[in-house]
Amino acid sequence: MKNKNNYDYLLSDLTQLTGVGKKTMAILKKKKVNNIFDLLWKLPKSYTDRSQSRKINELQIGNIHTIRVVPIKYNFPRVRNLPNRVNCEDDTGKIDCVFFNSYEGYIRKILPLNEEVTVSGKISIFKNKYQITNPTYVSKDSSLIEKVHNKYSLTEGISEKVYNKIIAQILKNLPILNEWHSDEIMKIFGMESWNNSIIKLHDPANIANYESNFYRRLAYDEILSSFLVNSEIRKKIKKIKKASKFFTSIPYKNIISKLNFNLTNDQKKALENINKDLSSKSKMFRLLQGDVGSGKTIVSLISALNVIESNFQVAFMAPTEILARQHFNLAKQLFPKNIKIKLLSSKSDRLEKKKIIDELKNHKINMLFGTHAIFQKKILFYKLGYIIIDEQHKFGVRQRKLLSDKGGKNCDILLMSATPIPRTLTMSIYGDMDVSIIREKPNHRKEIKTYSKLENKINDVIKFVKKSIKEGSQIFWVCPLIEESKKLDHQSAIEKYRYLNKLFPNKVGLLHGKIENEEKEEILNKFLNKEYLVLVSTTIIEVGIDFPNANVIIIENSNKFGLSQLHQLRGRVGRGSKQATCILLFKSNLSVNAKKRINILKNSNDGFKISEEDMKLRGFGDLLGFKQSGIKNFKLADPIHNEDLFILAEKQIREIEKENIDIKKYKPLLKLYDQADIINDIV
Fold first, then answer.
1. Which DSSP category does 66 fall into?
2. Which CATH class is domain 449-604?
3. 121 - beta bridge partners?
4. Is 502 exposed, middle or buried (0-12, 13-18, 19+ CB in 10 A)?
5. How many distinct helices (H) and strands (E) make up the chain?
6. Residue 374 CA to chain centroid, in angstroms?
7. Per residue in 528-569, pLDDT tens?
8. Domain limits, the chain
9. DSSP 8-state secondary structure symbol assigned to residue 154
10. pTM here?
11. For 242, left (φ over 0), alpha (ψ -120 to 50), or beta?
12. Contact of 550 with 476, CB cutoff 8 Å
């Protein structure tokens, strides 16, 4: 089996393994173990030391011990449901081996009378006598038992004994793969080969040995494979030749003249990069990443106008209809009157939709705004040249590739995200795209003042709310739950709505996830039009709605939220020129971690810095408040503890791209670690 490059064995079905029947296979499949390679990453959590045999008089109840005994008598009761017992002894005492659901013949075979046998299992006591119930190991050959055995988290339904046998079998048959790393890289990891690293990974002595060379080498393999796939997708997209967009500076000047503020340096740089891509002969696939309120939309609209000037059409997709409408209204204010723009909405009647579809086909519409519905099969563009997608953070690599293909070779793609992420994750999540980052906030935007307050000081908060309303501001009031919960000590949105509605009759709106989309839109529009002065909501307001008059946000049980989520919620206010305020309400019994989170938020408005701290506190898997589909599910690599490895992988990828290095030698790495269909056309 130990053939070089024989990674097919590692990707083969579990039926290749001796001792894996239908039952074991079904258990492993439920745990998302589909092949031998998958099984290698279900790591031991601890171990059982069976290396030292003990005398009976040395046994400790509740512990696992290995003993050498002589069976002296069988007790096979004829009453159903009673266990079979074998009386055993050594020169220091007596013990019973107890068996449920085992046949007499099997017991006589493994425990022959008057012959020394080694037995291992958990010690208990029954009627003042030691016993081992269903021993884990029984053998005449003590060498098979007296050793350290790993404990795996997958053993529910699979015995420790069986599981260790399966892993031992895999490790014995590991193929010897050609090394894909250079000597320079290998020296960093003490020249540890992939094979030896895997074997050491399952050695009980190395459990949780995160700083070891073998562990770091395997973590680096994960990171590099992910980066390589993203790099190859990026290169593949760049090879697509398209018709260049040619435009002048006139659209830029037209829009700038209508703004009451100057673009930041980051906005100008991002626009420069986008325009360079648009005017090139290679297809653009770029992410515009920026903190909340950094002005991404303006940059995207200016670039859209440039594309329209080149006689192409533009599609602008937003996650919600109200956000699509906001972008549409902004474009109407900024675009010249001769530019024909339309909004495809669920509120559009049948005739209006038909008209929009017809005009798109005949190039009578320059730019279409809407939700994902604008990419329905029946909606055909005459000459689509640019797709802009706002708040794209739920799109993973595969979805993005499909999107890129959808527009055709002449269609450039710009995705926008208001979710800042740490540098170590950028290439993991967005490595298939070119990235522009806007860190600076527009000069007219004031930093949001953030305060923390005990919930029992609610009267002080209400006074502040009344004062803010008198001054012409609107208020967001965020609650973690929709309804009251007996199990969770959280404020509910419904409860808070009733309370506030008594203070501000008919001026309070209620928004939560159980409300139908059409009603949500109506409530948000009422708030936008100032019919509601206070909007009580769950976290569904987190994403991308711009309410210029909302200058106060109050967040109940703020200690229950992650930092990044709190920052996103806070970003719902301060969109105008007025001073905005965020009040974080909490109970007195705060954990140390919760205090840290609140203090970080109070002291910073920088989303990138906050996301770094959030990742340190909560881990990268929950950074965005959900398991983000675009994040590779690393088994070993950790962006916090392995930051140097992420930076090293980024450097190596840049060298590969610069020198145009053939990646064929990485084929085993990619096949093993990135088994998705997306790489089939790469290696």
1. E
2. alpha beta
3. 65
4. exposed
5. 22, 22
6. 27
7. 889 999 999 887 775 556 788 889 999 988 887 878 788 888
8. 1-46+163-176, 52-146, 250-438, 449-604
9. T
10. 0.72
11. beta
12. yes
| Residue that the structure tokens 């004062």 belong to | 467
Alpha-carbon distance of 533 to 549, in angstroms, equals 10
Q: Which residue has the tokens 């340190």?
A: 616
d(CA 157, CA 449) in angstroms, rounded, equals 54
Q: In whole angstroms, what separates CA 185 from the centre of its chain? A: 28
Taking alpha carbons only, the member of 551, 653, 616, 557 closest to residue 224 is 653
Short-list 536, 569, 551, CA closest to 418: 569
Of 137, 107, 97, the C-alpha closest to 120 is: 137
**Average pLDDT of the chain, as a whole number:** 84
**At which residue do the structure tokens 């997209």 appear?**
237
Q: For the chain of 683 residues, list the mean pLDDT of each consecutive stretch of 10.
A: 68 85 84 87 85 91 93 91 94 95 92 95 93 92 81 73 86 90 95 94 89 96 90 83 85 81 90 94 89 87 93 89 86 91 84 91 93 82 90 59 69 85 70 83 80 88 93 90 47 84 92 80 86 88 72 88 83 81 85 82 83 71 42 76 90 90 87 64 50
Topology match between the domains 250-438 and 449-604 = yes
Tell me, what amino acid is at 540?
I
Residue in this structure with the two tokens 């109840």, named with its chain if needed: 61
Q: What is the DSSP string of 494-505?
A: HHHHHHHHHHST
What span, in angstroms and rounded, lies between the C-alpha atoms of 454 and 461? 10
- Under CATH, domain 250-438 is a member of which superfamily? P-loop containing nucleotide triphosphate hydrolases (3.40.50.300)
The CATH code for residues 52-146 is 2.40.50.140
| Rounded-to-10 torsion of CA 642, 647, 651, 652 | 10
227/430 Cα distance (integer angstroms): 9
